[in-house]
Amino acid sequence: MSTLTSAPAERLPHPLVVRTVALDLPGAPATPAAAPPTDGTLPEADPTDLLDLLPAPGSEAADGAAPLAWVRRGDGLVGWGELLRFEVAGAERFAQAERAWREVLAHAVVRDEVQLPGTGPVAFGSFAFDEHSAAGGVVVVPRVVVGRRGGRAWLTTMTVGAALGPVPDLAELVGAPPAPASPGAVTYGDGAVTADGWRDVVAAGIAAVRDGEVDKVVLARDVEARTEHPLDVRWALQRLAHGYSSCWTFSVDGMLGATPELLVRSEKGLVTSRVLAGTIRRTGDDAADLARAAILAHSSKDLEEHEYAVRSVAHALEPFCSSTNVPDVPFVLHLPNVLHLASDVTGVLGGEAHAHPSSLALAAALHPTAAVCGTPTQAAATLIRRIEGMDRARYAGPVGWFGADGDGEWGIALRSAQTSAADPHRVRLFAGCGIVAASDPAAELAESEAKLVPMRTAIGSD
Ligand SMILES: C=C(O[C@@H]1C=C(C(=O)O)C=C[C@H]1O)C(=O)O
Q1: Mean of pLDDT values over 387-400
Q2: What ipTM was assigned to the predicted interfaces of this complex?
Q3: Where in this chain does the record put each Chorismate-utilising enzyme C-terminal domain (predicted)?
Q4: Which of 82, 98, 103, 261 is catalytic?
Q5: Backbone angles phi, psi at 376, to 5 degrees
Q6: CATH 3.60.120.10 occupies which residues in the chain?
């Protein structure tokens, strides 16, 4: 592993050598000829097929680094082994990350036999919410990536060398990783602010809205978990992918979770963002939940919160797009723990393809959205720093991957937790809520508890 903070390519002894070959995974035939079933449906992949390939912590393949993952409904990418690592910081963290990746790519030797989004060179990244946070950001270039998309799968190996090596072989690279062991009993303690204290934080947020300092502010809290046995991140990822199949299950540098919110996907000039804001807890009773979905869809408080979030995304995308499409009304996204108001905003990038901004540049322009910061952005960010009482670190920051052409997918690191490199028993869980004038501190605390459920369940044993 090399840790570089600037001018990476100049310091690389040899170019990055990248090789992608087709793979035969369950439900993912290697040859496209065998792929399309007659009824037009794609073969079902188990949501954890890719995750099952991740090497165990402590194994040689894991290389001492946290697993890398970006998976939804069985498609996506997993990666392991840390070939290159770039640490970035401050307001320029996204630009620094992009520069580092471009410098590596400028000297790359690539043989890509599959040619799909996510094949060829791929880097994963995770970035702090706040430019002042010591958590900064990281870009990791793995040694091995396995991807799956719509019935096709591939294997990419990345090395730093002088020439293309032999055709990579998955069996040799993966072996048979042992299933992750349970983390055992989990005990919880307060995070930076106690639950009671957080009600006061929310009350201060509501007062600031009523005073006209902001229209909306998103306030978050953390809780500290201690696992009996060291947490094997693969354990949590498998449970998240099974339980939250409509979310993007991610893991980069110890930041893991299952986010329902896609900050931006950029693919061949088409940009998509899934905006969420406006939440109601589920009861566990389907009929009652349907009634709650109808209440949510008509709640003026939630529609107002949602409108701020959608407008902030559409506004941030407009300078890059020749056209954008903003749905008139949100749909209700049903997750196992909560219901959200959701809107998929799309856009077509303007200008020549070679001049398109990368997906990370788009993520940088979109971050922080009103869904995780508030409106107006600067006033909300200042208010968060003043009253929230914790460093969000990489929670609510962009997390995802990008490829050689800059296309990629970046989620907002929600329903998430940060593991500790120093103490494998320690996990910090996060959740936050949008606050408007009509918010109620006790209801927001309950909503934050509902949003902690995915990660609590993921690191639990039953
Ligand atoms: C901030 C979080 O969620 C955000 C806030 C929401 C809300 O307040 O309704 C909904 C989805 C997210 O945009 C979180 O999950 O931590």
Answers
A1: 98
A2: 0.98
A3: 196-451
A4: 261
A5: -65, 155
A6: 186-247+260-458
